[in-house]
Amino acid sequence: MITPDILTADALQSVPRVVVALPREQAFRQLVPRHCHQRAQFLYAIEGVMRVTTDVGVWLIPPRRALLIAPGVAHELTMLTNVSMRSLYIAPAALPGLVAGCRLIEVSSLLRELVQALVAEPVEYPIPGRGEHLAALILSELGAAATVPISIPWPRDRRLVRVCEAIMDNPGDTRSIDEWAFHAGASARTLMRLFPRETSLPFRQWVQQVHLADAFCRLARGDSVGSIAAALGYASPSAFTAMFRRILGKTPQDYLAEWRVPA
Fold first, then answer.
1. From the CB of residue 87, how many other CB atoms can be counted at a distance below 10 Å?
2. What was the pLDDT predicted at 100?
3. Distances (CA, A) of 144 to 68, 111, 139, 140
4. Alpha carbon of 33 to those of 8, 78, 109: distances in Å?
5. What does the alpha-carbon distance between residue 195 and residue 56 come to, in Å, rounded to a whole number?
6. Is 80:50 a contact under the CB 8 Å cutoff?
7. Torsion of CA 101, 125, 111, 97, to 10 degrees
8. Exposure pattern of 148-180 as b/e (b: 16+ CB <10 Å)?
9. Residues whose CB falls within 8 Å of the CB of residue 55, separated by 6 or more in sequence, listed in order
10. Range list of β-strands (E), 65-209
11. Looking at the predicted structure, is the pLDDT value of residue 82 above 70?
12. Is 263 in contact with 227 (CB distance < 8 Å)?
C-alpha cells in the first residue's frame, strides 16, 4: 500500500490500478530533470504554465491544455510560473489509440473535475468503488479529447538549435532569415534548407508554431489580443488573428469567450 508520504511518480508506476493520480505544487523556474515512465502520462496544470522538452519537440502547456506522453518518452519539465500540477499515470493498454510521442489535447470542464476528484481518492482506491468509476470516465473523456495542432519540433543541428533557442526565449523577435543566418554562423540558404529537414516545417511555419504556443499561454493568463499581437511582432491584431484562425480554425476571441465560462 502506497501512503501519502511516499507518493512519487516512480512509486505509482506499479500501483495495481488502471489510472493513478499525483498532485504536485511546483515553483517558478523549477526544473524536473529528464526522465521517463513505464505508463502513459497525462500532464496537466490547473494553474500555471510549464514547458515540456523531449528529443524531438517542445510544448508549452497552459491551463485547459494537457500533454499526453506515451510510455518510455524521455522528457524534461520547466515551470514558467508557479504551477499546480496534476498528473495521471495510465496503463498503456487502457489507451489503445495513444500515438507514440506526445499529443497536446483540450481539457474539458468535465475532465478537469474528474481529475480533481481522482486526486482526492486514495492512490489504491477500492475496487469496485468511486475511484474505479472516475478512472473509467477519465478514460472516456481522454478518448474524446480534441487534439490541439500546436507542437514545436526541435532540431539537432547546432546552428539551428542556436536560432530556435533564441526565438523561444523571445518569440516576438522579428529578425529576418538573413539576420538569423548571421546569428547562427550559416548562410540564409543553409537555414532555409535545414528547417524542413530538421523540423519538417519551413522557417515561417516553425515560427508560427512558437507564436501559437506563446499566445495560448498569454490568453490563459488573460492578456488582450492586441497586447499579444504586439508582443509577438505582428503589425496589427487583425494580422495575428488571421494567422491564428488559419491554423486553428478559431479566433483568439473564440477561445477567450470559451475560457470565460468557469472551469
1. 21
2. 80
3. 13, 10, 9, 7
4. 14, 9, 30
5. 13
6. yes
7. 30
8. bebbbbbbebebbeebbeebbeebebeeebeeb
9. 74, 154
10. 65-69, 75-79, 83-90, 102-106, 152-153
11. yes
12. no
Q: Which cell goes with 34?
A: 529528464
Enclosing H/E stretch for 237: helix 237-248
Name residue 148's amino acid.
V
Dump pLDDT digits (tens) for 109-165.
Answer: 999 999 999 999 999 999 999 999 999 999 999 999 999 889 899 999 999 999 999
- The set of cell numbers assigned to 33 is 530533470
Distance CA 121, CA 137 (A): 14
Task: Say if CB 154 and CB 57 are below 8 A apart.
Answer: yes
Q: What is the pLDDT of residue 172?
A: 93
Looking at this protein, which amino acid is placed at residue 57?
Answer: G
pLDDT of residue 11: 84
Q: How many residues does the chain have?
A: 263
SS3 55: coil
Q: What is the pLDDT of residue 2?
A: 43
Distance between CA atoms of residues 212 and 255, nearest Å: 12
Task: Note the pLDDT of residue 8.
Answer: 79
- With a cut of 50, say whether residue 214 has pLDDT above it: yes
Locate cell 523531449: which residue?
54
| pTM: predicted TM-score of the whole model, two decimal places | 0.86
Q: Distance between CA atoms of 120 and 21, rounded to whole angstroms? A: 9
The contacts of residue 19 (CB under 8 Å, 6+ apart) are 88, 89, 90, 91, 94, 118, 135, 138, 139
